[in-house]
Hints:
This protein has 216 residues and is mainly beta. 7% of the residues lie in helices and 63% in strands. The protein has one helix at residues 5-19, and strands spanning 40-54, 64-79, 84-91, 95-105, 112-123, 129-143, 146-159, 162-178, 183-195, 200-215. Strands 1-2-3-4-5-6-7-8-9-10 form a ten-stranded antiparallel beta barrel. A hairpin with a 3-residue loop joins strand 3 (84-91) and strand 4 (95-105). The N and C termini lie far apart (53 Å).
Amino acid sequence: MLKSTSSLGLLLAFSALLFFTSCASLTGFQTGRTVGKGNGQFMISLNASQSPDFDFDSNDSTEVDHFFFPNVEMGGRLGITDKFDLGLRVNSFLNIAVDGKYQLIGDQSSDVALSVGAGLGTFGLISALWNAQIPLYFSFHPAENIDLYLNPRYIVQFAAGDLNTGLHYFGGNAGILFGRKVKFGIDAGLYNLDAFEAIDLQSIATVGIGVIIPIN
């Protein structure tokens, strides 16, 4: 916890970042498989998250509280090659993110699949607040209509022009999808938060339900 006035000022700056923490997309609903060249997907999900907040009216101004918030996210993917996808996601906090996903192990029908990705997001395209993401996508497909996945992910959130002030997210998502073509899923995520300075920000948890519709 902070013990000085200057540190409190830094904490106030981070609280402004945390106000928009929920803007960064923390949803999963992705397996290790790419969609394949010329194919696509549309996804929509309803999510509920728990995030840290700062209560500056309490006796201890550095106390970390939590609040809950719902959000809706929509997204799409397009297969550029059999191994490489491009994706776009937009959520109800006006976060817009683009990403790429490259499959390292398996194909669109393999029982085990592994992909690596990278993405960049911003708040409403006009904000100075950005986030960059590096996920891994691992999935196991025990049956044609069941997909189990685990997506560890690192996220850095920062203000444009000030790379020394921001947040690190360390965590990931896990979930299950049901269906042969149209897939319905349950997703859960947990991320620890660390600032670029030594401030204890605790963690963010999220859970959601979603549907993925193939587009050929």
